[in-house]
Amino acid sequence: MKQSRTFIPTMKETPSDADIRSHQLLLRAGFIRQNTAGVYSFLPLAKRVLTKIETVIREEMEKAEAVEVLMPALQQAELWKETGRWDNYGSELFRLTDRHNREFALGPTHEEVITSLLRDDINSYKKLPLTLYQIQTKFRDEARPRFGLLRGREFIMKDAYSFHSTDESLEEKYQQMKQAYTNIFTRLGLNFRAVLADGGSIGGTDTHEFMALSEIGEDTIAFSDESSYAANIERAEVNQTYEKSDEALLDMEKVETPGQKTIEDIVTFLNVPVEKTIKTLVFKVDDEFVTVLCRGDHEVNDIKLKNALDAEEVSLATEAEVFELLGCHTGSVGPVQLPVGVKVIADHAVEAVVNGVCGANEDDHHIIHVNPERDFAVDRYEDIRFIQEGDPSPDGVGTIQFARGIELGHIFKLGTDYSEPMKATALDQNGRAQPYKMGCYGIGVSRVLSAVAEQFNDENGLKWPRHLAPYDVHLVAVNMKNEEQVALADELYDLLQSYRYDVLYDDRQERAGVKFADSDLIGLPVRITVGKKASEGIVEVKFRHNGEQVEWQKEEVTEKLQSFFSKQ
Ligand code: 9G3
Predict the structure, then answer these.
(1) Which residues, at least 6 apart from 234, have a Cβ–Cβ distance to it below 8 Å?
(2) Whose CA is nearest to atom 9 of ligand 1?
(3) What would the pLDDT profile of 350-373 be if each residue is shown by its tens digit?
(4) Does the Cβ of 108 fall within 6 Å of ligand 1?
(5) For residue range 368-379, what is the model confidence (pLDDT) as tens digits?
(6) What global pTM score does this model have?
């Protein structure tokens, strides 16, 4: 493609509202433009990369026996009312009405649509399993769109849905999709991990996330330094036994701790090890207050708490609610002599505390020598703390480290969560109507583009992996007024295209410096420059991945390019 004929609006300056490298570079290199918050246009170079990413995804979906469809973005509200999601999704769901005042959602995902599509036709186990997927635009009114394509309000997703008459068939498809995702992210050249994303029970297969490792990732991954264990920190389970000291139990005693609020204050003021302190938090769980205990050096994981209590809604009680309930401020709350009926949930580590310290439910006072069971009752001990770096890996092999990740893919077992309420059933061998067992499998395609850009760049710009680059070769004619240079550049342009290379030919009337800077910014794998030595039939070649520069005779260009690209 001649650069004078395409649209690549490069920018010298870094836009002020782009705060991560990939977002800055995709803007500066003329790949994307923002229309409004969280809404982007993909310009020609980005569109070509998207197409290559999608090709890898389609090939792997084909191998996983998934068939492509394209579903509408306009989804009638009735479908979402069948599953109850019309009401339990709030402002994140884009809603609109048509000319007849009928309600619609702009699709954030397609469980309802695909299930309603199949229930009209798939009514026998003989027609299952079936796996359908699409690559389509999704809409989610994110409260804080940011990081460019990483968290947009309109984005491209590959979403697949599988339908089964047995759990075994679903499990088989789930493993097949997990392998397909591993193949996809490997072929895309991304540094990624498949992590447990739910329950975290080792070997549990209810859901996995595929994370690209990146410092700017919003998710934290807990992984073992010696085994393949990896889990989203929200879900990583703690599997640890705590040593209970055999020191004699001392008498409980209330002490004055004027102005001491935090665990650190108490550790210093009372000169006690943090492992002997008990942190007490009051949570509102659905519509009741629950007191939650963890050791002072740990943090309560509200996702685990929610799962342990099988609650819909879990949030920290406000200062006012705490004062109303206990007559003191949050820094003085403790588990001793709570009002009757207030449940106490404690993390396992609390059970091993001996002669500990906790709040006295009285401002500026704490209790020392407090012992669980003797001095306060615990309704349930649960794993409700965040795992920490240095903890033993839950699978018993190695120690936990943290890494930050960008979630690129997420696969789920849905069971009958959608087919049941939507009465989507198939007759089983005994002629009984059973709701489909379903799985769903997503990849953030536009997010993948951003993750690749985030992983492949340097101080001069983007550095696309060869098989994802928008073009294979950047052909640059230095001076378009020099007939010899233009002649040789034109000749090479035709020759390379006849060898089926995708060539971006910089034929613009621009200074050489501008052309080279743009070329480094855009980041194609190879730049062939036709300049002063055109009269000798010599071109300069620069490889973007390592900056190496060489000179080739024009006659050897195709053969040497071939050997470069064959080193995939
Ligand atoms: C909504 C809105 C946002 C949402 C959802 C629904 C996330 C929603 C979860 C999924 C699960 C999988 C199939 C492809 C892979 C992901 N955000 N999710 O259901 F109404 Cl506004 O989308 N769906």
Answers:
(1) 197, 301, 303, 304
(2) 109
(3) 999 999 999 999 999 999 999 999
(4) yes
(5) 999 999 999 999
(6) 0.89
